[in-house]
Design a protein that fits this description.
The chain is an alpha+beta fold. It has 31 helices and 20 strands.
Length: about 800
């Protein structure tokens, strides 16, 4: 008997020894894990402030979101109060029904899992709590090489989960989980997921939509609603069953909702899509710009370097991320710091601008050009181009292509590459009726795209200088080059108002009469330069005419007369004061607009006339907030007095003459040219001052239009100046560009929410302005001797 008791004591001692050692060993293991002795363990600070990559958001001024900047994770935070209760209930019922009872590790759940493994019952569910899943997302598994590493990592997640439970409330853990989870298709976090899959904010999610997103949390790669909608539907209904099982919804509600479709409104995340893509790209490049160094610019980019350096030194917004630091001393990163960038753009005006550009190009201008392509020897090039010149231009286009770059890196010669460019290839090409899947040679695709006309558009608030609409081209996905801020083209006759500004500054008025005769200039080399008018008015030829008539009808003879009274250098100086920073050649032909300027510069300069001579540099962003909503930067426009108020008002009168009786009269008329089209963009009664512009061979068409509320400008042309309309009737600015202005403003006036009405507009008049602008009255009261005395 004694021997049995002795053995029992030994067994009992051994059992408790093993038990104590086991428990002690486990306790020691977790203690070592918690203190980071077995590998990485986040500190208290890291748990309190987990590092989250947040996309920066860009907003319209009226509150609508434009887009986001991100590289790896398209995530933005949403507050707990904006989460629908159905979403939270679905998450708890499906992923962790005992979430509110445990402290990070659910022992009952673990027992259930072990039992399921032993019995082979896989339906018993997983043992990971929401807190453990969050731990895995916040501190992802990396470098797992063995089963031991995997088990150790699991233990670490338990410890992190418990620490999370101590650091955060249950609501905060739910919020972190939903803000962190990757729902695939560039939808990281519930806010992005709701937008990507349903095009709505998270607080608008309905029960069946919430259930689908929660169902994706099991395995978003497998349960991808874009690729496997039927499988996702089944998974969603499992979530609904769980909600019914645990009393969150009734059986009748589950049976009703499970019949609903997924109701997807997939909003593909692509930087080429979405509103204002040209401005988004400009802002991205500008915010992230580094201090310009000449060595980083190509040899032919000298002017670009000069302009960028001036922006770096004078514009706080240019290179903002590299000029400013976060509290920790690091520079800001628009891809991960969750900045909120508030632009000046109005979502409604931006929409109308895009529609106006498309309306004119798609339904009028492009068909007009295409209908006359049969008359071209080498379409789409003009007939004044020789075959050799055309081939040279096409060779240049080949060298600019990505296909050429790749083949050159592969060691192919230009002759070999050119042969490949003549081999038929399957491709998808742009058309105004939608994308076309077709087969053509890369060379034919080059010609195909070259024939398309492009337009750029920018509108600014007249008084504040805020840019309200920005369209860099017809379609960012296929025509990515920005012709508002990036591209420069000859401005044609839109340069003439700057010449007339010089005249108004020096005592002339719109009613001043000058001779309508040919003018000659002696060139530096001794030759004679005599500018011509394309259409000499026989009734006015040789007579005295007003400056208003000369500008309204864009007569080169009158502009030449004005220039002869002063000099080209004086005109350049006026242009600089009005905000033109592109190089302007001070030559006798400058009033023909032979210098290349951006649309951005032209709109800003013209806007000065409506502001009593104060130049207000157009700007794009009003403020930037950090991820916590703190304003960390505010931006204001550059302002300076460019010309006196009287000169500015005189110029408005001259430019109103262009609209009322000159080349811009289509905005007033409904019975000129093609009546149906003109009615759609003409017949305005509000004050409008503006100028059309047409370059040599009518390769570029311009129009800048000013009202007391908005100044807007348009450039239209093909990518190459050798592609243009045959006649000036089709190629002039009044036909290529002006209609877009009209289409846009018709839409703006029709939108009562914008508060812009025709009967509520009047240009500001300077105090004590006494000049008579009625040229008929001036003609009656002024004696011929006064003219002789003046000159």
């Amino acid at each position: 008997m004694g021997e049995k008791k002795s053995k029992f004591r030994i067994y009992l001692l051994a059992f408790w020894s093993i038990f104590v050692l086991g428990v002690g060993g486990v306790a020691l293991l977790f203690l070592m894990i918690a203190n980071g002795l077995l590998g990485f363990m986040p500190s208290f600070e890291e748990l309190e402030n987990p590092k989250n990559i947040l996309a920066s958001e860009i907003y319209f001024e009226d509150g609508a979101i434009i887009d986001k900047y991100f590289v790896s994770e398209n995530r933005t935070f949403v507050d707990y109060e904006n989460l629908p209760s159905d979403l939270i209930d679905a998450l708890i019922a499906t992923e962790d029904v005992r979430f509110y009872q445990h402290s990070g590790v659910d022992l009952r759940g673990l027992v259930r899992v072990v039992k399921g493994i032993l019995t082979g019952n896989s339906s018993s569910g997983g043992g990971s709590t929401l807190s453990q899943q969050l731990a895995k997302m916040l501190f992802p598994r990396t470098g797992v090489e063995s089963k031991f590493d995997l088990v150790l990592r699991k233990f670490k997640e338990w410890v992190i989960a418990v620490k999370l439970e101590r650091s955060y409330t249950k609501e905060e853990i739910i919020l972190m989980y939903l803000n962190k989870y990757d729902y695939l298709n560039n939808a990281v976090g519930i806010k992005s997921a709701a937008n990507v899959y349903f095009s709505i904010p998270p607080d608008s999610l309905q029960l069946h939509q919430s259930a689908m997103l929660v169902g994706m949390a099991k395995n978003s790669s497998l349960y991808n609603p874009v690729r496997r909608p039927e499988l996702v539907m089944k998974r969603r209904n499992v979530v609904l069953a769980q909600m019914e099982k645990y009393g969150y919804i009734s059986k009748a509600e589950r049976d009703s909702v499970k019949q609903l479709p997924l109701d997807l409104k997939y909003n593909k995340v692509d930087y080429k899509l979405g509103p204002a893509p040209y401005l988004r790209e400009y802002l991205r490049l500008t915010l992230s710009a580094k201090k310009p160094e000449r060595d980083n610019y190509a040899s032919w980019q000298g002017q670009k370097y000069i302009e960028d350096l001036a922006e770096w030194e004078n514009n706080p917004f240019f290179g903002w991320c590299n000029k400013n630091q976060k509290p920790n001393g690091e520079k800001y990163d628009i891809y991960s710091d969750g900045l909120k960038i508030y632009t000046t753009l109005d979502s409604r005006m931006q929409k109308y601008a895009v529609e106006a550009v498309e309306q004119h190009l798609r339904y009028d201008l492009q068909p007009l050009f295409d209908d006359n392509m049969d008359a071209l020897d080498n379409p789409p090039f003009a007939n004044n181009m020789s075959a050799e010149e055309v081939e040279d231009l096409l060779d240049r286009e080949i060298r600019k292509s990505e296909r050429y770059r790749v083949m050159r890196l592969a060691g192919k010669s230009f002759e070999q590459i050119k042969e490949r460019f003549n081999e038929p290839t399957e491709m998808t090409v742009f058309s105004w009726k939608g994308e076309i899947d077709t087969t053509m040679t890369p060379m034919d695709s080059i010609k195909y795209y070259l024939r398309y006309f492009r337009s750029s558009f920018m509108a600014v608030d007249t008084e504040s200088g805020k840019v309200k609409a920005y369209v860099g081209g017809p379609n960012y996905e296929y025509f990515m080059y920005d012709m508002v801020k990036g591209g420069k083209r000859q401005v044609g006759s839109t340069v003439k108002p700057f010449l007339y500004t010089l005249a108004m500054q020096n005592g002339l008025t719109p009613c001043t009469k000058v001779p309508y005769v040919s003018q000659q200039f002696i060139q530096p080399d001794g030759s004679i330069y005599e500018p011509k008018d394309s259409d000499v008015d026989p009734e006015m030829d040789g007579k005295m005419v007003t400056l208003k008539w000369g500008l309204a009808n864009s007569k080169n003879r009158i502009s030449a007369w004005v220039l002869k009274q002063y000099n080209p250098a004086a005109v350049v100086e006026v242009m600089k004061r009005l905000g033109i920073y592109s190089p302007i050649d001070p030559v006798n032909s400058m009033f023909l607009g032979v210098s290349d300027v951006t649309l951005y510069e032209m709109v800003g300069a013209f806007n000065t006339y409506a502001n009593l001579g104060v130049y207000t540099k157009p700007y794009f962003v009003t403020k930037i907030e950090d991820r916590y909503g703190n304003v960390i930067a505010r931006f204001y426009p550059e302002r300076h007095e460019a010309i006196d108020a009287q000169t500015a008002y005189l110029m408005l009168n001259l430019l109103e003459g262009v609209i009322n009786e000159g080349t811009g009269i289509r905005l007033r008329s409904t019975n000129l040219w093609r009546e149906r089209v003109t009615q759609e963009y003409g017949d305005f009664s509000m004050p409008i001052a503006g100028k059309t512009g047409t370059t040599q061979n009518h390769s570029d068409g311009w129009f800048i239009g000013i009202t007391p509320k908005l100044t807007a400008g348009i450039w239209t042309g093909a990518d190459l100046r050798s592609i243009h309309f045959k006649t000036i009737g089709a190629g002039q600015g009044a036909n290529m560009a002006l209609p877009i202005w009209g289409y846009f403003y018709k839409k703006v006036l029709a939108d009562e929410s914008l508060g812009i009405r025709e009967d509520d507009m009047q240009f500001k008049k300077p105090a004590n302005f006494k000049i008579n602008l009625d040229c008929d009255e001036v003609e009656k009261t002024k004696s011929p001797a006064e003219f002789d005395e003046f000159f």
